[in-house]
Structure formats: structure tokens, C-alpha cells
Design goal:
Blueprint lengths: L2 H56 L2 H9 L17 E5 L5 E4 L3 E2 L7 E2 L8 E5 L6 E5 L5 E6 L9 E4 L4 E5 L2
Antiparallel strand pairs: 1-2, 1-9, 3-4, 4-8, 5-6, 6-7, 7-8
Bound molecules: zinc ion.
The site of zinc ion has 8 residues, from loops.
Length: 173
């Protein structure tokens, strides 16, 4: 008669031990996951900072200021506003082809001007903070390129006013 209550008690104790063990395991597992996540997050932030450092080394201070801090080069100082050679203008940051000499025109503004991008979706446009001007950025990497105005020539009547230092020219046919 003594054996029955004893084995029942043992069962309860074993059950409780297993329950405690399982919950401890769950806590440790959750902790490990949280640590892994925080390591992954700080890694991503580190990559971004490393990317910025890399860009600062690769670009001139003006190229960095214009493309990453939405700056503007002084009019009539850039290397491409009076470039009349045939070829492609690529993003200085990522190398994506953005404009062709075929749509370049003489605007008199002192910045390279195009009436259209190479393809519709290679650049993105959105309103500046002042809600007046429309900013143009590289769709591929987000580099600031310049602004677009609706006072351009035929056939689009658009004027993409782009900083020379956001561009890299590749001579072509
Ligand atoms: Zn780009």
C-alpha cells in the first residue's frame, strides 16, 4: 500500500522537473535568438558606415557632397555642361547608365541638361522639402543627381538639370 502514493509523488516530481527544464530551455533559446538578432543588426549598421567610408575614399569631396548630401555644384564649373561628345552619362556612384548625349541640349544654365533620361525608370523624381523643386535621384543607388523642370525643349518639354559631378561620361557612338 505504501508503493502507490510514493510512485504518484515521484511522477509529479518528475513531471515538475521536466516542466522546469523545458521552460529554462525555452528561456535560453529565446535569449540566444535575441543575441543573434542584435549582432545581425549592429552588423548591418556597421556595413552602412563602412559603405559611407568607402564612398568618401572613392569620390571627390564635391562628388560626395552632391550625391550623398544633396548638394549642388556651382554653375558653369562642372566638367560636362559644355561637353558635346557622343556617349553615355552614368551615375558616378553606382555606374548605372542614366542619360544619353542624344537628349542633351544647350540650356544656358551652366549644368548639363537633358530633355529625357535614358529610360523612364532609371531615375526617380520627387518633390524637394520646399515643395517647389522636383529632385532627381538615381533609381539604382539613390544618389542625388539634380532637379527636373518643365521648361525644356521638344519633344518632352522637360529639363533634367544634372550636376556634372553626379555623372561619369563614357564616350560612345
Ligand atoms: Zn546610382
Amino acid at each position: 500500500m505504501q508503493a502507490k502514493p510514493f510512485s504518484f509523488r515521484t511522477l509529479v516530481v518528475v513531471f515538475l522537473l521536466v516542466a522546469v527544464f523545458l521552460s529554462l530551455d525555452a528561456i535560453v533559446f529565446a535569449k540566444e535568438e535575441a543575441e543573434k538578432r542584435s549582432v545581425a543588426q549592429s552588423g548591418a549598421a556597421g556595413d552602412k558606415a563602412a559603405g559611407k567610408d568607402d564612398l568618401k575614399k572613392r569620390l571627390t569631396p564635391l562628388q560626395y557632397h552632391v550625391t550623398q548630401e544633396k548638394g549642388t555644384e556651382t554653375a558653369f564649373t562642372g566638367q560636362y555642361y559644355k561637353n558635346h561628345q557622343k556617349g553615355l552619362y552614368k551615375c558616378i556612384v553606382c555606374g548605372e547608365p542614366l542619360f544619353s548625349s542624344k537628349t542633351k541640349f544647350e540650356s544656358g544654365s551652366g549644368w548639363p541638361s537633358f530633355y529625357a533620361p535614358l529610360k523612364k525608370d532609371v531615375v526617380s523624381e520627387h518633390k524637394d522639402k520646399d515643395e517647389v523643386k522636383t529632385e532627381v535621384i538615381c533609381s539604382h543607388c539613390g544618389a542625388h543627381l539634380g532637379h527636373v523642370f518643365n521648361d525644356g525643349p521638344n519633344p518632352t518639354h522637360m529639363r533634367y538639370c544634372i550636376n556634372s559631378c553626379s555623372l561619369d561620361f563614357e564616350k560612345g557612338k
